[in-house]
Write a structure and sequence with these properties.
The radius of gyration is 31 Å and the shape is elongated. It has three domains: 79 residues, no CATH class; 129 residues, no CATH class; 64 residues. By secondary structure, it is mainly α. The protein has a three-stranded antiparallel β-sheet. The chain has a two-stranded antiparallel ribbon with strand order 4-5. A two-stranded antiparallel ribbon has the order 6-7. It has eleven helices and seven strands. GO terms for molecular function: ubiquitin protein ligase activity; zinc ion binding. Its EC number is 2.3.2.27. Pfam families: zf-UBR. It catalyses: S-ubiquitinyl-[E2 ubiquitin-conjugating enzyme]-L-cysteine + [acceptor protein]-L-lysine = [E2 ubiquitin-conjugating enzyme]-L-cysteine + N(6)-ubiquitinyl-[acceptor protein]-L-lysine.
Amino acid sequence: QGAVSRQALYACGTCTPPGAEPAGICLACSYECHGTHRLFELYTKRNFRCDCGNSKFKNLRCKLLPEKGKVNSGNKYNDNFYGLYCTCKRPYPDPEDEIPDEMIQCIVCEDWFHGRHLGAVPPESGDFHEMVCQACMNHCHFLWAYAAQLAVPPLTKANSLEDERIVPKVEESEEQKKEIKQESGVECQEVKEEKQPEQLNEPSTSSGSACPEVVPKSEEPVCKLKELQSKPFLKKDTATFWPLNWRSKLCTCEGCLKMYAELEVQFLTDECDTVLAYENKGTSDQETERRDPLMDTLNSMNRVQQVELICEYNDLKTELTDYFRRFADEGTVVKREDIQQFFEEFQSRKRQRTNRMQYYCS
């Protein structure tokens, strides 16, 4: 298939120990080819192709797909493939760590981090859906402009020294606040026009006063990012936490799409890239597999058709059971010709019954 947009992955500590090249294997190969090996669960990764049996595995041939390319150049690897996580580069679970802590995955680098190593105390797990770590916020610096409007605020700062550095800046920005108030007449109109249809998944920050509608001066697409960057916002040395559907608020103008490509984060605008979308798809597939095809067919018919189909099914089941019982009693093998003969006779009997039916009142 090539690279899969998102799939569950494992790393094999038996085949690729520390010092060897990192490699990832799919769920199927973890059972079929590495069933007795020491495996590290990597949860899910995006755009990854299974490495099992390629040049990274010196003495192993994939049982499911023996012919494989030597390397998968599109795959990305990190310390997770050696069973190490977070900025502390420790295993999980860590036998030496006595502090209970939740591990949270960054949606950009897809590494896992202890909550206490994110520079800020994470909100309650139900209050946010995705996290971007400190290093990735520095890499994706444009996200700070969005964070001021969209991000879920952390509970408290994890580093008191950081408080001392950031808080005075907020307190000393009274002149900036006055400028914002002076410009609010224009900004309120522009921002409200864009944000009004998008209020569903954002926390309300409006005082309730309605802004008059303004007719756009130009039909050219407006860059949401530039509008946000024109307002004061803080850059902090912390991770950020994001609500459901925040990706849909990112600008998709030509300039921003080019920037996403340069930073290799095009996936940020793809709602199907989220782990939630992956989990929902798995749930939907399971429900589809559990559905009974016969019941689906019956539900699509009217009452008369349902009765006729059930009668035909019961007749076929009874006659087929009796037919096979003869072979079982005689100890003979059922051949293809026997099956063909059965259905020919069954269809003949069905036609005879149909011809004898009375479709009119006497």
